[in-house]
Design goal:
Layout: E1 2-16, E2 20-27, E3 31-37, E4 56-63, E5 69-78, H1 81-84, H2 87-103, H3 111-125, H4 130-144, E6 165-168, E7 173-175, H5 177-180, E8 186-188, H6 190-201, H7 215-232, H8 238-251
Parallel strand pairs: 3-5
Antiparallel strand pairs: 1-2, 1-4, 2-3, 4-5, 6-7, 6-8
Helix pairs in contact: 2-3, 2-4, 2-8, 3-4, 4-7
Length: 254
C-alpha cells in the first residue's frame, strides 16, 4: 500500500455510486490506471476540475489492496478548454483517448505514447485542422503500441510501395497490387500512402502541419478505421460520429 504522484490525461470517466466516478488515467510513469475519484461528482469537490474527461492533470493516488486506486488530489495542468467548445475537436479527442485506452496495458509505462497523447490534445486545442492533427497522433499511437510502421515495402514481396496499395484484412496490412492476385480488396491511393508516411515521420509538436482536405479526408479515415478494426477487433464508437460530421461537411448546410 502506497501513495504516489504522477501526471496524466483523463481518458474516460463514468458515474459510480452516489457521488464517485470511475476514471481511466494515462499516466507518464505508471501507464494506464483505473481509479476511483471519491466524491468527485459533488459540486464543490476539489477533484472535479482535475478529473474532467480529457484534462491533463497532476495526480496523487493511493494504491491499496483493491484493483482500483484512489485519486486523493487532482490539479489541472491543461484543461484543453477550446476542445470542449467544438464538437469536431471533442469527437477527435475522444477517439484519441479511446485508442490509447485500448492499445496499452494497465500499469505498463509508455512514456512515448503519453507524449503523443498530450501532443495530439494540444494540437486540437491550438486550433489545427482536427482530422489532420488527430490522425497524425493516432498513427503514431499505433506505432508506439507496435501496430504500425512506415509503409515503405510490400510485406509479402518486399518491393517498394508506390501506390495504389490494397488492404489485406486477413494479414492486417497493406500489400502491392501484384500480391493481391485479383482479390477484391480495399484500395488506397498514392496520396494516402504518402500522407500516412509523413504523419508517421512527423515530430509530435507538428501534428496538423500536413493537412488532408476533400476526398482524401474520407480515404484517410477509412484506412485508419480498417487498421483499428483489424488490431482491436472492433471499430471505436467515435468513428460513427466522426463519419456523420464528415458527411455533413460534404453535404454542406441544408
Amino acid at each position: 500500500m502506497a501513495t504516489y504522484r504522477d501526471q496524466g490525461i483523463v481518458l474516460k470517466s463514468k458515474a459510480y455510486r452516489d457521488h464517485d466516478a470511475l476514471v481511466n488515467l494515462f499516466l507518464l510513469n505508471h501507464g494506464k490506471v483505473a481509479a476511483i475519484g471519491r466524491g468527485v461528482r459533488k459540486p464543490k469537490s476539489p477533484l472535479n476540475a482535475g478529473l474532467y474527461p480529457l484534462s491533463y492533470s497532476g495526480f496523487e493516488l493511493y494504491r491499496g489492496r483493491s484493483s482500483l486506486e484512489s485519486v486523493t488530489s487532482a490539479d489541472v495542468i491543461h484543461g484543453f478548454g477550446k476542445i470542449r467548445g467544438d464538437i469536431d475537436r471533442i469527437a477527435w479527442a475522444s477517439l484519441i483517448a479511446d485508442v490509447a485506452s485500448e492499445c496499452f496495458s494497465d500499469h505498463d509505462p509508455a512514456p512515448e505514447a503519453f507524449y503523443i497523447l498530450v501532443a495530439g490534445m494540444e494540437a486540437l486545442n491550438d486550433g489545427r485542422h482536427p482530422p489532420s492533427a488527430a490522425m497524425a497522433a493516432l498513427w503514431q499511437l499505433l506505432r508506439a503500441a507496435g501496430f504500425a510502421a512506415r509503409f515503405d515495402h510490400c510485406p509479402q514481396c518486399h518491393v517498394p510501395l508506390s501506390g495504389p496499395l490494397l488492404w489485406h484484412p486477413g494479414e492486417g496490412q497493406v500489400i502491392c497490387p501484384r500480391c493481391a492476385r485479383g482479390a477484391h480488396l480495399k484500395t488506397f491511393s498514392t496520396g494516402a500512402l504518402k500522407t500516412v508516411n509523413r504523419w508517421l515521420d512527423m515530430p509530435a509538436d507538428k501534428f496538423g502541419a500536413v493537412e488532408v482536405r476533400g476526398r482524401l479526408v474520407g480515404e484517410m479515415v477509412d484506412w485508419l478505421s480498417v487498421t483499428l478494426a483489424s488490431q482491436l477487433h472492433r471499430t471505436p464508437r467515435a468513428f460513427a460520429f466522426i463519419s456523420q460530421l464528415l458527411d455533413q461537411e460534404v453535404e454542406g448546410p441544408s
